[in-house]
Amino acid sequence: MAGYILKELPKGMNNSEKALFPKMQNYSMLDFNSVVKHMHTYSGTFSEGTIKGVIDTLTTMMKAWMIEGHSIKIDGLGVFSLSLGFDTSAPSEQEIAENRLQVGSDADEETKSKYRKVFIQGINFKPDSQLLKDMNEEAKFERIEPEVKLPKTNPHSREERLAIAQALIDKNGQMTLTDYALATGLERSTASRELKAFVNDPSSGITTQGNYSHKVWVKKENA
Q1: Average of pLDDT values for 64-82?
Q2: What CATH number has the domain spanning 152-223?
Q3: How do the domains of the chain map onto residue ranges?
């Protein structure tokens, strides 16, 4: 039997003042080798090497086809498709030059964003309806904590968190997402959204360098 807790949404995320939602309690994460061993034990027909080969081939095929604009449907599991976004790091000098030639140096931010690099920011997964139905018929859930988990309140204001970010950058020359999350007590997803807002705010004096796992936040030149 799986466990769950009840959590309360922060204000502003829902019309209700006290909107509750259940969150499943995850006890562990099965790594690749554990999944393979369980599949081998369950089927009894395929060797672990065969299972690994099939999964590796499927992963390779999905990567090759999805970047060409195809979605992948696996019957009984669901549909996979790419989610795209704009690279929010500063545009290259070449992009700036091309932008000025085509739309002029006074182009607004919305127009300039069209010339930013597009990248894969995630993979969408829509589960098969029969899979959800079968799992709901088998699953049983038990509430494991009597108290409702309230949203955490951050002890720092936005202005104070900006000052913390600026101080970290001044001290170390750069700042990672983990640095900012630890220093401010924000969850990584919230910290990432706030840093994006800082970068889009000209008065913050903060910009980014690098992409993806190599992205860092640095002091903006002439700031």
Answers
A1: 97
A2: 1.10.10.10
A3: 1-71+129-151, 78-127, 152-223
Quick one: pLDDT at residue 213? 72
Tally of CA atoms within 13 A in the half-sphere of 63 that contains its CB = 6
Confidence of residue 152 (pLDDT cuts 50, 70, 90): confident
**What sign results for the dihedral spanned by CA atoms 51, 57, 58, 59?**
positive
Q: Is 177 helix (H, G, I), strand (E, B) or coil?
A: helix
Pairing verdict, β 141-143 and 118-127 = unpaired
| 214 to 45, 52, 76, 89, 210: CA distances (angstroms) | 43, 30, 36, 11, 5
The CB-side HSE value for 163 (13 A sphere, CA atoms) comes to 5
Mean pLDDT of the chain: 85
> How many CB atoms sit inside 10 A of residue 206's CB?
21
How large is the greatest C-alpha to C-alpha distance in the chain, in angstroms? 66
Give pLDDT tens digits for 37-66. 999 999 989 999 999 999 999 999 999 999
- The secondary structure of residue 184, as a DSSP letter, is H
Q: Are 20 and 148 in contact (CB under 8 A)?
A: yes
Query: Does residue 159 carry a pLDDT above 50?
Result: yes
Is residue 105 helix, strand or coil? coil
Beta bridge partners of 22: 6
Helices marked H in the chain — which ranges? 32-43, 48-66, 93-103, 109-113, 129-138, 158-172, 177-184, 188-200
